[in-house]
C-alpha cells in the first residue's frame, strides 16, 4: 500500500513541478514553503528508498528550465533538499518508533 501511495505521490509531484502554470501564493516566499512541504512528504513516504529518491529534489528543479513559464531557482532547490531531508528523518523516526508494535489483535478482546 505504501509503495502505491509513493508512486501516486511521485506522479503528483511531477505534475506540480513540471506544469507550465505556476500557482501563486498569498504568503511571502510561500513557494519555498510549498517546496519544503511537498518534498518532506516525498522523504517521509520514500525514506526506505532514499538513495533512489535523492536526485529528485535537484532534478525536478533543473527540469523546470525546459518548461515554459517556469524558472530554475537555487532557493527552491534548497527548500526541496531541506524538506526531503526532514521527511527522511521523520519517516525513519516514525518507522523506528513503531517497530515491533502489534498490528493486529488476534487473540483479543
From TrEMBL:
Query: Would the keyword Transmembrane helix turn up in this protein's UniProt record?
Result: yes
- Pfam families given for it? VanZ (PF04892)
Highest rank taxon of the organism:
Archaea
Listed InterPro entries: VanZ-like
Which keywords accompany this UniProt record?
Answer: Membrane, Transmembrane, Transmembrane helix
Give me the segments passing through the membrane: 40-60, 72-94
Domain (VanZ-like): give its ranges: 30-90
Keyword Calcium present in the record's keywords: the answer is: no
Q: What is this protein called?
A: VanZ-like domain-containing protein
